[in-house]
Amino acid sequence: MDDVEADVETLKAEVRKLNARATQAKMDLHDLSEELPTNWERIPEVAKVAHAAHAALVDARKRLAALS
After folding, report:
1. From 30, 47, 49, 53, which residue has the greatest number of CB atoms within 10 Å?
2. Can you give the residue ranges of every domain in the chain?
């Protein structure tokens, strides 16, 4: 396996991990929305985590596409 193939496999693993995080963040945001107005104070915190998780996932997918 050459360096590019190794990089692609490493990035695929990262995308899988980031996808799991983004999915969990999405579910946390959904769960919070279901509980409203209870815990409304947590909206910015939970939304920030979801935003960061999805931004990281999109970035990793772009890097993977550039290598593929």
Report:
1. 53
2. 3-67
pTM of the model: 0.88
Centre a 10 Å sphere on the Cβ of residue 19 and count the other Cβ atoms it contains.
15
Which residues are within 8 A (CB) of 15 and not within 5 positions of it... i.e. 6 or more apart? 57, 60, 61, 64
d(C-alpha 64, C-alpha 17), whole Å: 14
Contact by Cβ (8 Å): 66, 3: no
* Residues with pLDDT less than 70, the chain: 1
Domain 3-67, classified CATH 1.20.59.10, yes or no = no
